[in-house]
TrEMBL record, chain A:
Matching Gene3D superfamilies: P-loop containing nucleotide triphosphate hydrolases (3.40.50.300)
GO cellular component, one term: plasma membrane
Keywords attached to this entry: ATP-binding, Cell membrane, Membrane, Nucleotide-binding, Repeat, Sugar transport, Translocase, Transport
Compartments it resides in: Cell membrane
CDD domains reported for this sequence: ABC_Carb_Monos_I (cd03216), ABC_Carb_Monos_II (cd03215)
Protein name: Sugar ABC transporter ATP-binding protein
Membrane topology according to the record: Peripheral membrane protein
Single Gene Ontology MF annotation: ATP binding
UniProt source species: Diplocloster agilis
Pfam families: ABC_tran (PF00005)
Domain ABC transporter: 6-246, 256-500
TrEMBL record, chain B:
Translocase as UniProt keyword: no
Signal peptide annotation: none
GO cellular component: plasma membrane
Places the protein is found: Cell membrane
Keyword match Metal-binding: no
Protein name as annotated: Autoinducer 2 import system permease protein LsrD
GO MF annotation terms: transmembrane transporter activity
TM helices/strands, residue ranges: 12-33, 91-110, 156-178, 211-229, 241-259, 266-285, 291-308
Membrane topology: Multi-pass membrane protein
Keywords in alphabetical order: Cell inner membrane, Cell membrane, Membrane, Transmembrane, Transmembrane helix, Transport
Main location: membrane
UniProtKB/TrEMBL annotation, chain C:
Keywords linked to the UniProt accession: Cell membrane, Membrane, Transmembrane, Transmembrane helix
Source organism (scientific name): Diplocloster agilis
Gene Ontology CC terms: plasma membrane
Name of protein: ABC transporter permease
Origin: domain of life: Bacteria
Pfam families named in the record: BPD_transp_2
Transmembrane segment boundaries: 38-54, 82-104, 111-130, 150-172, 283-303
UniProt feature coiled coil, ranges: none
Amino acid sequence: MGETVLELKNIVKTFPGVLALNDVSFDLEKGEVHAICGENGAGKSTLMKVLSGVYQPDSGEIHVNGQNRKFANPMESYKSGVSIIFQETSLFEEMTVLENMFLGHETSKKTLGFLPVLNYREMREKAREIFKRLNTKIDLDTKIKTLGMAQKQMVEIAKSLTFDANILIFDEPTASLTQREVDALFSIILSLKKEGMGIVYISHRLEEIFEICDRVTVLRDGQYISTKNVGGTNKDELVADMVGRTMHNYYPKTETELGDVIFRVENFYDEGFLENINFEVRKGEILGFAGLAGAGRTELMEAVCGLAPKAQGEVILDGKKLSISDYTDAMKEGLVYVSEDRGKYGLIVDMSIEENISMPQLKDFSKFGIIDRKKESAVAAEYMKEITIKAPSPDFTVNNLSGGNQQKVSIAKALAIQPKILVLDEPTRGVDVNAKAEIHKIISELTGKGLTILMISSELPELLGMCDRIYVMKEGRIVGCFSRQDATQDKILKTALEGEGEE
Amino acid sequence: MKTVKKLKFTFNIALLLILIVIFAAISILNPVFLSPEYLLNVVLRNVVELGLISLPMTLIIITGGIDLSVGNIMVLSAMVGAMAAGRMGSVAGVIVTFLVGLACGLFNGIIIAKVKVPAMVTTLASMFLFLGLTRGMTGGDSVYAFPAAEAVGSKLFLGIPVQIFIYMICAVLFYILLAKSTFGRRLFGIGLNSNATKYCGVDIEKMLIRIYALSGLMCALAALIMIGRFSSLRYDAGTNINLKVITIVVLGGTSILGGTGDLKGTILATLIIGVLNSGLTVLNIPIDTQTIVHGTILIISLIAYEIVNRRTSSKRLKEVKTELLKKTG
Amino acid sequence: MTTEFYLLLFLILVLLFLAVFAKGFYDLSNLMNLLNRFNYVLIAAVGMNMIIITSNIDVSAGALVSVLCIIAASLGKQGLPIGVFLPVTMAAGAVLSMINGLFITKLHIPAIVATLATTQLFQGVLPLAVNGSIYDLPATFTWLAYDAKLFGIFPASTVLMLVVIVTGLLFMKYSKFSKKLYAIGNNKNGARLAGVNVDRTIVIAYTIAGALYGITAVIIGTASQRVTTTMANGKEMTFIAAVVLGGTSTAGGSGKLIGTVIGAFILSLVSPAINYLGISPDWSDAIMGGIIILSVVASAVNIKKKRRISAAPGGR
Amino acid sequence: KDTDTSAPAPAQTTKDEQSAAPADQKDTQGKKIKIAVLPKMKGENYWDACQVGAEDAAKELKDAGYDVELLYDGPPQDQATNQKQVDLLEGWIAQGVDAVAVGCVDASAISPTLKKAQEKGIKIVTFDSDSEPDARDLFINQASYEGVAKALVENAAAELKEKGYGPENPVNIAIMGQTKTDTNVEAWNSNIQELIKTDEYNWMKLQNPDSDIYYPGADEVETQTQAGTLISRMGEGADKIQCAFGITSMTAPALGSQYEASTNKPPVDKIVLTGVATPNALKSYILNEQNPLKFGVLWNTMDLAIWRCRRRTSWRQEISPQIPRR
Ligand SMILES: Nc1ncnc2c1ncn2[C@@H]1O[C@H](COP(=O)(O)OP(=O)(O)OP(=O)(O)O)[C@@H](O)[C@H]1O
Ligand SMILES: Nc1ncnc2c1ncn2[C@@H]1O[C@H](COP(=O)(O)OP(=O)(O)OP(=O)(O)O)[C@@H](O)[C@H]1O
Ligand SMILES: [Mg+2]
Ligand SMILES: [Mg+2]
């Protein structure tokens, strides 16, 4: 391989009460893709933020292109050749694509010899060039808020290329992308790599690491663990490094006896979003929903649960036709939805575990409108034990929990409603390997107790590993259905892309 | 929420201390202040209207909203009520006052909840609207009190002004509503994360409309008391009230960003403002200086809150991490 | 179509209506009187617009302008010409408004609360500093309002306003700084990551607004030979209303200056217009409120519709 | 008590009354007397002059051997509401002041509190704008309601006639008050309207009370802008206004200054501006030949306040000072 373009030496970073990075070293060579992996909170993002000047390290050295550097803010690091695409998007919704790409480093020319005036023409040309390089077309004058996730991601990448960077950092770029978009992203990464760029790639999806990375560095609890050539390691070994022990079964699916059809959705329809949806599920079954982003899976489930007021169609549970006008009705009938976006829709993170659990059905936790706090606490404690939420007490604020535990709280909250049908939308998004396996185990156990689960996921291995049947959606329609035995990654992907398959 | 609650606890104690210090200082400087008659008939009586409106305002601010039109709702409802009383008698006057207050509150609530115009913008516009309606309808003249208003505004019961009883009852009811009831819990939910609260099956639009309507009703109640106390009211009587009420709520430790706050703080803050208002007057401190004192106390309390907030949360974060470490090994 | 476009349409309709029904409305003296009112509202609203774009707000603007009026008058009373007291007042405005900015950024106090507190300080300090109001101001002081007429017609304050608008429009389009303002209003954290010094930018926005309040104060103050200590109290609501009517969201990050210009003009128009229509100016607040409500409701409904369409699958 | 004395007393009364003070010296000397003065608002020159006068008077009384403490406070101009006035009054009542002099923002709103004060034995004097008659001991009326209105209309009519108007060439008038709750201003207003209905003045017409009577409120800027609109509506012709009365100390100077500021001024020999204010506030407009504000009803509020303080020891009579004319 080539020369070393980036070296981080013995980085230490503490936050009040947290040792986020403890003596971590890392290096990157020209033309390589170097993965960093580790569980939630391992320190991956922090390391990259130290590198890009968001945080300043307590001690340690940063060498970029052979020079020792100290960055006071991200702009300084950009200018010295390090570009980063942050985990949480940092785009400005109300501003145009062009304004976003050049924010903070607009090109300007001097008017009247002294007044710096923005040079829109030059910026426009540069932007067009970059999009040509990325092989994408986006109108430079549209506002970001009108773009979809994938396009936003593309703007982020384009933005990072407006600097003459030779080091590019992707912090979980694929968390909200689906397979097709991931493939497109990978071809871009590969071409950038060919151009000689050094790329840091952070992801929880280990398959991706084996697909495009050259080396992989593992962090655990802020400690440096190992750096390996991807060719010379395997998934189990990586995971063992990440969690500190060996793990074997990622998808602990227990085979259960399926009951009769318990739940049917017929002729479901929502103008502009959903078209003629029909599906059914048997008691105890885990029914998967695959599809590209924007295929309408979330929309479908929200509509079925009364969260999209304009949708129409029939929902039949236990042979009884339900009339659901809002989510309260759905909950009453035992139809419960766990959102894909924990922080935004799933949990009130500034409230305690018990308060979150009681929120959907406060009536049951109250007498004459006055809340029974003892009951709240007792019920929460029960669920914490049942699905092993790691927290000191039920009145612990959710915000202070790890991602995996937060996800478990949202599942506990759903379970407390005593659902008959549980809808899980991306139940393991952004959750680390260990917690993922635990959540899978919980899901399995629940079906063992007779619960029926509808599960949306963009990770095909997860669907394949957990589901009894998988429906595939495309543009608001169901375009395919596979049984556990027939389903393969290729078939599902093909159906999701092209819309054909056995209906 | 536990951190928040602990924090509130200490902050309320700080407020109580401020109240006691101010109270003691004024009483020492001019013992006239301590006479029960002055305390009841002036100090308390003068803040009842502000106090009554700051109760629903606390709820509104906790949901992340704001209502800049309360003072104008007050005067509009009192005015239309008084006009009705003149034609149809006192009872009709009371009913109309409450109906107008309710209508104004619903107007705000529906635009905020259904049309989704930010509360600040909606109530800024309705502030102009209600003020303008009052001004246009009266042409700048006063409206006069009617017997029912006098009964709540200028009569005594057991030697204590009637409105003080009304305030105490309302304060207790609102305290229970916010701190103990399911309704209150949902309000906090809306303030902290309205999306997630909606995904818990809470009808947020209905909740918001309800609290703005409730605010309108409380404005009408306060308006009755006010017109009864002064025996007449002019169109501009409400304009200064808007920001004063917000000052009280914020002084009481409710975050303007929504999601945190409690009514004990608001009640304490109401008392502080009341004692300051009347106390500084007895000390013959000119009104302008009084304004400075108000501003300074507000700033000090904001800074204190910020410091307490930062200290507690960073300390709490440390505790959390060590606890977690112990628990998970 | 944008909010600004609809507002402009509305404005044109109103102006046509007035041409037909309000006799004498287009008299030169009335138009110039209208401009006078528009000038001071607009100049302050330009500053307020910048502040609101960063998703902050300034409810102390009215009290601050009152303070600045007194500062201008106390200089003017000594016979100093406008060439002296205008810049000094602007500088004073910049400094005092900067204090607001510092409160907000350094102490992390939400803008509405911080400025609520400073309002009380401004209001209270003023009567202590000057006993009562300032009267009998000399001709040098009232020069701007009485004698300074461009081509014998346009009040010089209109020239000030035009300078502010043109500079403002160019500044918002062609300066790096304006991009930072929008970025902060959109996504404070994102802006920080993009290397924007958020705190400093906000403080500067308040400072610029303060300087503009200085101009407003001079226009208001020089309108007669007396300047009172409460001159502009309560005017902040009019400034904010102009910005909001102009389509700037109080959530920050969006809104064009041209909208604020139209908004300020519409609001300034109301009182004289209805007076010429034979209606008491007492109704002007109600009509202003009605216009703002209709406008924000219409654009909210419009946005909702739009969102629905762009969210349709296949339509990306 | 009867409040209205139609014939203005001669100005010299002021001087004569000075001798009245020492007469009561015996019962009040040695005892500390607290006198509170509550203006409608602070920070406005008419009322600020009252403060100066009150302070001078207090000093004079002290020099004369009385132990007098003067308390002077009132609402800021933008908050000239009865609530503020009542708040202050309550504080003074609690302290047990001996006398209060009030210029009432709103007669009906303040009267209950004034009555409460009376019950405590506090002497109540109202000035400028009266309360309800049974809520005070004495009302000092600077000028009788008819007197002011008559002076204004008489002079305006004379001036208008000079400019070529009269029964065969009628004029439109407009009036600028402040708020409808000012007892005195409203009395002048209605007296003016009565007067122009009489045969003598019926060629002065108030066309549309809605749009031609202005109530800008206590807001200085609003007063200025409405005055500006009014000036722009003035000029020659039946659809214009030829004569404007600014009948408060804020609106009269506002008319003067807005005329100066106006572009395309209505011709000075075709319109008349007039009003009620302190001499200082109108001085420069009157002196300016190019300004149609040629006269005003003026008085010296400083003396008014001096006088009030002095009178408190002998409550016997109602006094009206002269309306000085130019
Ligand atoms: N600003 C901050 N203040 C305090 N603690 C922080 C801050 N940022 C990160 N941490 C803590 O530092 C540790 C490392 O966080 P980091 O975001 O780097 O993890 P990560 O590996 O990127 O996790 P994920 O996979 O969830 O993105 C965590 O314990 C986190 O709680
Ligand atoms: N990547 C994207 N590109 C464009 N629009 C998108 C994208 N993702 C979601 N959307 C928009 O969001 C709407 C809702 O999509 P929805 O979340 O229901 O799809 P999904 O299949 O659940 O996707 P996901 O896998 O992201 O959960 C879609 O109609 C689409 O307009
Ligand atoms: Mg991360
Ligand atoms: Mg989805």
